[in-house]
Amino acid sequence: MSFIKRIHDRFFAIPLIARFDKVVRYLIAGGIAAGTDLVFLYVFTDVLGIWYLLSAVLAFLIAFVVSFVLQKFWTFGDKNTDVWKSQAALYFIVTSTNLGLNTLLMYLFVDQFGIHYLLSQIIISAGIACESFFVYQIFIFRKNHGAR
To answer: What is the pLDDT of residues 59-84, one digit of tens each?
Structure first.
């Protein structure tokens, strides 16, 4: 058994974590996607010199791919590949809406309130994550998505 698999199995065997398994997985997957977003936001803005709002859009799109794959297959355990295109489209609509909200809030937090762009992104991402969990669970990765 691989080292990562052993750690995974022990971590999710802890009673409190096992009870909130899906939420914990969502937070971990979201953390990975958020980390991806922040790393690319930093690289695009500070290393490549791209305007922070355009950087936020590009980073968000890269994080979208990471997030969709982790949430579909790991968090929500949806192995059905027959509906992945429609799920990806719905997921993209939700994330695009979130991108618009993210961009608007980035503008307000940075330009209007003077909060550093990285701290702004962390705060905004936390709020969007809460809203998204319920949307993903109820509308996109529901267990009976194939049954009509």
So the answer is: 988 998 999 999 999 999 888 889 99
CA-based nearest residue to 97, from 137, 143, 59, 64: 64
* DSSP-derived secondary structure for 43-102: IIIIIS---HHHHHHHHHHHHHHHHHHHIIIIIS-----TTHHHHHHHHHHHHHHHHHHH
pTM: 0.70
Q: Out of 8-17, 52-61, 69-78, 81-90, pick the least confident.
A: 8-17
Six token digits for residue 55: 């950087």
> Which residues are within 8 A (CB) of 122 and not within 5 positions of it... i.e. 6 or more apart?
34, 38
Q: Which helix (H) or strand (E) holds 129?
A: helix 117-135
Domain positions in the chain: 3-140
| Rounded percentage of the chain residues whose pLDDT exceeds 70 | 88
Tokens of residue 11, six digits:
């971590």
Predicted confidence at residue 124, as pLDDT, reads: 93
The pair of three-digit structure tokens given for residue 57, joined into one six-digit string:
């859009």
Report the 10 Å Cβ neighbour count for 137: 17
Contact call for residues 136 and 71 (beta carbons, < 8 A): yes
